[in-house]
Q: What sequence folds into this?
């Protein structure tokens, strides 16, 4: 469920992007289990005075992305609401032997992510401020925020490997989501390298923000985080790069002791608070 | 999708009832196709300051009703929102040969409903005014509004009959929903008898309202409306009564000419506007 003012900015974003993001967030959850999408339903709440053109563009954003991954919107609902609300449900299929969950990680596993992080949060900064940053160097951040790519193909491929013990998608931020994966697996975690997206660095340099902080807790990058048998990691990462032309980044490891720690290269591990988004935090 | 202030009244209803209604509305859609529920997902938007107890009671309302029909809430989402929003998705199963849709009606078919109407709208009147009507005679209206019964068993049974050509559930009011069924079937419709629920008569008599109007356009009764081959109707209705201890009410018929008409007993048909709820009507 995505709500205007909480997950997106009705007034600052084209309806096509809002629809794309709503569908991407749901497809990403399937990707994290290694599943193939089969059908989608959409319940849409529309505020008074919403135009038909806006509604149609939002559906087009959802339907176009769904079609890219071989699925369709087959039903749903449309109701009046005080603010725009998108509730998307996607049903997927995965064979039992390949299904990945977040609770399968083991102490010692290498933690990895399917791409560099923080670009979505950087794009939010651009959209939120309504600033018109000129130049190519900001395009990636806007693109990642407005049209994130669910890692369906990568997820299905990774799920086929027995060396991948646990998987989830990064919707609420690396620090929050890795802590969830670690806890579900009865482990702690140490983050040793955080891959910061070049687009996050570019935007942060204009706004005095810390791009590493965006990468750690920005959320909505929709990359996958996984726990991999450490001995199998180099081979898996090599095959992943050959298959997808993308790097599989090692970011740390699961530990037998509880808690989430972050260690600068060569430094001592420091306890890290999960700083990502929590909807029920007051 | 059910939204506070549009579909329910956060402040006037216990969370258990709101949850029950949200699940009932979705199960009712399956009932109308003759399907058996298999799994449910729930996305819940909660306004700031919503208590954990409220949230748990709302989920209990949904889960209890789901369990009555052999299904469970298997996942979902919970997010912050400006007002409480329930988005429930239920997946069901029905064999292809039994699946009923709203577009299978034929001119001459008898239109029927699975119960008397208007009690839910009467219950809304009680809840909306916060009035404490004393006595048993108002209990049925409150019960129908707060804990509507999805006609899952009746729907599956009716779907097994080839004489039932089309089916839908009455969520937005008899006049609106019959018009939808007729249009989808390429027909018009005449309503000749509108079964008014005794509870609607009881409440209306206290509020100077017209209970027949509530039955025609009140909505959310969640009875099923069906188009039945006219020669098969008496036999079907007899078996239905024997099986469920409820009457199957003939309310009119589908016509070859377009439009929705209502005829008082012995009177001339008059054109009827669909007066039920339309979320996109300004």
A:
């Amino acid at each position: 469920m995505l709500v205007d003012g909480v997950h997106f900015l009705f007034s600052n974003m084209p309806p096509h992007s809002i629809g794309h993001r709503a569908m991407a967030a749901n497809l990403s959850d399937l990707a994290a289990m290694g599943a193939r999408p089969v059908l989608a339903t959409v319940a849409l709440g529309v505020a008074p005075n919403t135009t038909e053109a806006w509604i149609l563009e939002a559906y087009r954003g959802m339907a176009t992305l769904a079609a890219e991954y071989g699925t369709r919107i087959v039903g749903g609902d449309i109701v009046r609401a005080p603010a725009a609300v998108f509730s998307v449900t996607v049903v997927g299929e995965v064979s039992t032997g390949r299904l990945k969950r977040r609770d399968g990680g083991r102490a010692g596993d290498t933690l990895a992510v399917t791409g560099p992080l923080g670009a979505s949060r950087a794009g939010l900064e651009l959209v939120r401020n309504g600033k018109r940053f000129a130049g190519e160097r900001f395009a990636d951040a806007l693109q990642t925020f407005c049209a994130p790519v669910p890692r369906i193909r990568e997820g299905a491929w990774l799920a086929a490997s027995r060396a991948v013990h646990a998987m989830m998608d990064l919707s609420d931020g690396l620090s929050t989501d890795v802590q969830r994966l670690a806890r579900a697996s009865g482990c702690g975690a140490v983050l040793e390298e955080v891959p910061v997206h070049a687009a996050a660095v570019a935007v942060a340099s204009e706004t005095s923000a810390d791009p590493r902080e965006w990468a750690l807790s920005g959320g909505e990058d929709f990359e996958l985080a996984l726990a991999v048998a450490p001995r199998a990691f180099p081979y898996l990462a090599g095959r992943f790069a050959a298959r997808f032309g993308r790097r599989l980044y090692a970011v740390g490891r699961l530990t037998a002791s509880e808690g989430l720690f972050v260690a600068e290269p060569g430094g001592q591990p420091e306890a890290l608070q999960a700083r990502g988004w929590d909807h029920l935090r007051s």
User: Anything to note?
Assistant: The longest helix of chain A spans residues 15-31. The domain at 110-271 of chain A is CATH 3.90.650.10 (Phosphoribosyl-aminoimidazole Synthetase; Chain A, domain 2).
